[in-house]
Amino acid sequence: MSPAGLATIEDYRARLRISGVDIKGGAALRGDYPCRAGVVSVITVGYNCAKTIGRTIDSVVSQKDVDCEYIVIDGGSTDGTVSILRERTAQIQVWLSEPDGGISDAFNKGVALASGEYVAIINSDDWLESGHLHTAIAELEATNADFVFGDLALYTADGHRVHFFKGEPDYARRIFHYMPFLNHPSVVCRRSAFERNGLFDTSLRTAMDYDWFLRFHKRGGVGHYSPRLLANMTLDGQSDRNFMSALREVRDISIRHGYPAASAWARFMFRSAKGKTRRAVAGWLPGGIYEKLRRRINANYLSSRS
Predict the structure, then answer these.
(1) Which of 63, 80, 99, 277 could bond to 50 as cystine, CB 3.0-4.6 Å?
(2) Considering the domain 9-237 in this protein, what is its CATH number?
(3) How far apart, in whole angstroms, are the C-alpha atoms of residue 93 and residue 73?
(4) CA dist 229 → 116, 118, 149, 225, 282 (Å)
């Protein structure tokens, strides 16, 4: 374990080697994980995602002008997801299916199995735009940043586009007290970022990305926003519950990293009331007026990408 109490990449690699889990793909069976220059390791995690994972896989394997290592971590699905993975083994370099300890644990397995110089994580109900990886790597090399991020489009489960969240170039301004718009599905980072910062905290269920980015910021990690990057995310039926869970974890994480508890609680109460009010207003206010009002309140919210 690391001094911070988090499992390291080597801890996870050792665990995967001795667990006896049936890992598909030669890269995971070599016993060594050299950093392969120029390769981007894309990690998809999911559970019972047979309805959506095909679209995610398509968006990854269709990326052009990049050397891509694709890793899929399934949490032991029972809905046909594993059959899809078996059918598409030729397009997936490494995949495994076993019960896990939550999404942070699944992320960590994927990072531990990755051998690319760059790492991207895209969940099984989300998808990338064409050319995303090539553009991200070009931005990383041009800026010398540790990670790059862009905008995020949100869709309903039936494919209706809801809105966009614009990435936040000056995210450092508020990262100590709240999760800025780093738009995790759009992020591509250097593998060295995980080597420097460690893995995701498995005690967290929804805001593990905030904790990871905040830890990295405190260690001097630098991110770069690019308006050329866009990822797509599906809103599921549990989004309201996840919203409140994320607010609670963000509150606790910010306190853990030195933000005053009274301020963190005040911000939590404000954000909670704001979220409840937004959902109530959305139910009766005409769509055009609602969009204009929300855009005025949140500068990063866009009803269309512009």
Answers:
(1) 80
(2) 3.90.550.10
(3) 12
(4) 20, 16, 7, 8, 28
